[in-house]
Design goal:
Layout (H helix, E strand, L loop, with lengths): L1 H62 L5 H26 L1
């Protein structure tokens, strides 16, 4: 009888450990879901920003014939900088 009691206590202890682990994993899962949702929202925003920048670039290319060469170069550098920054953000979001 005592042997069964010892086995039941051991099973109860293991069950308590498993329950604690399950609670920790559930909390971690909730946090990860929130983090994922935030990253997905940021990714959508960055994609939207990139689409806007591409449109601006196309507009600049079309209207660029009226600009001086120095202005064109300056604008190209600014746009390249924006695109590089957006690409870095997208890489971070996709990582």
């Amino acid at each position: 009888m005592e042997e069964i009691s010892v086995q039941i206590k051991a099973i109860q202890e293991k069950l308590q450990i498993l329950l604690r682990q399950q609670q920790v994993l559930q909390k971690e899962n909730q946090k990860l879901k929130k983090d994922l949702e935030k990253v997905q929202t940021e990714k959508l925003q960055k994609e939207s920003d990139l689409a806007g920048m591409i449109q601006q670039l196309e507009s600049v290319k079309i209207g660029g014939s009226q600009w001086s060469p120095a202005d064109k170069l300056l604008m190209e550098k600014r746009i390249d900088g924006y695109l590089k920054e957006i690409e870095k953000c997208l890489l971070l979001l996709n990582a």
